[in-house]
Amino acid sequence: MTQRTMETTTKSGARRKARFATVAGILVLAGIGTGGPATPAWAKDQPATPVKDAGMAFEGARVMRDAERVAALEEAERLATQSARGAKSKDDEAAARYLSAEIMFDRGENARAAAEFRGVTDKLGKSPFADDAMFQSILATEATGADRDAMNAWNDWVNRFPESPLQGEAKLAQAWNCIRRNEAVAAQKHLTALLAGRPWYANDARATLARATVLYLTQKPADALALIGAKPGGGAAAAYLRGLCHRSLGAVLQSAASFQEVSDRYPNSPLRDVALLGKADAFLRAKDYRSAAEEFTRAATKAKDPAVVGEAEIRAAGATLLAGHADSALALFHGIVERRPGTDQAARAQFLIGDVLATRGQYQEAILELNRVLTTYFQHSVAASAQYRVARCLDALGRKADATGSYQAVVSGYPLEPEAPAAAYL
Fold first, then answer.
1. How far apart are CA 290 and CA 323, in angstroms?
2. For FRET with 128, which of 48, 232, 314, 388 sits at 20 to 30 Å CA-CA?
């Protein structure tokens, strides 16, 4: 058996799927397909034991849905814990604890799973399966969002298990970890090392996606698109990256089509909601404001992620304003302020209410609305813009002394904001 075949088949349950995500025009990489690991080989092909019963219960639970699945997983974990307590050997205890960690991971209890996998790693010592357990502990750590801690653990793992058949998977995992932390150069180094030592990864879809993502992050969207291919297919992450590349290249319609591919063909993907936002944003960039407003409204209706829903609502209102329907936009902005108090979307909506009134020449009313930003949302990014807009309104009303004080407030309160230089001049 060749090394390549061994690496792609041995311990296959521990292989990791790629993760990729983004929000609102900023590439943010997130997790795709984080199913738990497979039961290690030492727990297979043995006479019926309590840990085998727990394993069978776990496998049965994984194919159930909703409440039945939750209850079945709880029962499987109870059986695994009971098996670990009654184990007659270290191997039996390690197998039961490994299974418990699997179940925790599957239930989304990532911190518990990481801790349990670490405990199993310590218990296994120099066992040939210690690399599996530590590998899974790092995956679970990443699932908690602690990517930097996980990266330190990956480095430790690579040095500790130089002969492990999972070395290639670890290199790929390191690359994705760097990508999620926006360290594209470091990611490229890991990918280069991966392909140099294991050239067959050049045909691995996950490695290809990682390489293309690095190209996109380093401002090479055409090269990224050439690597993953312009035709549909390849999974949700590839389609989403394709949409980002088309958008960067100014191909608005192709971008919208790629984002729609994600939402239509992969409705269960964690990228679905942001893809809905991406499609709407494509129309906004094309200055087709009416279509953008419709698509943002559609995204707000269909998305499940509250953050995406809120962003879609504010952008739908903004697109409505740009389409020339100021009264309708004002009603939408007021609705956002009422429904989402204390949020960034509410802060932006409150500012835009004042901005619309100022644009209409309703300066006194605008000042009242903008001052609400300064009293309620003074820590948000729109505060400097609100203070500057108040000063402009006071100027328009002929209240020069008050306007000067407001301009000075911009300079002293928000010296690093874009409005500061203009305020200092005025």
1. 6
2. 48
Cα(347)–Cα(341) distance, rounded to whole angstroms?
8
Contacts of 360 (CB under 8 A, 6+ apart): 326
Q: Which residues pair with 26 in a beta bridge?
A: 23
Summarised one tens digit per residue, pLDDT across range 397-425 is 999 888 888 888 878 877 777 777 776 66
Residue 321: the pLDDT is 96
CB 186 within 8 A of CB 163: no
Helix, strand, coil percent values for the chain (each to nearest 5): 75, 0, 25
Residues 6+ apart with CB under 8 A from 383: 347, 373, 374, 377, 413, 414
Q: Which of these, 90, 111, 113, lies nearest to 42 by C-alpha position?
A: 90
pTM of the model: 0.77
Cα(163)–Cα(128) distance, rounded to whole angstroms?
A: 10
CB 130 within 8 A of CB 121: yes
Cα distances from 317 to residues 220, 329, 333, 348, in angstroms, run 33, 5, 6, 11
Q: How far apart are CA 209 and CA 320, in angstroms?
A: 36
- Note the pLDDT of residue 353: 96
Q: What is the DSSP letter of 377?
A: S
Cα angle value 142/148/149 (rounded, 5°): 70
Nearest residue to 40 (alpha-carbon basis) of 112, 111, 115, 117: 117
Q: How many helices (H) and strands (E) does the chain have?
A: 22, 0
First to last CA, the chain: 76
- Token pair listed for 70: 């939750």
Exposure string of 118-144, with b = 16+ CB inside 10 Å and e = fewer, is: bbbbebbeebebbbbbbbbbbbbbbbe
R_g of the chain, CA atoms, integer Å: 27
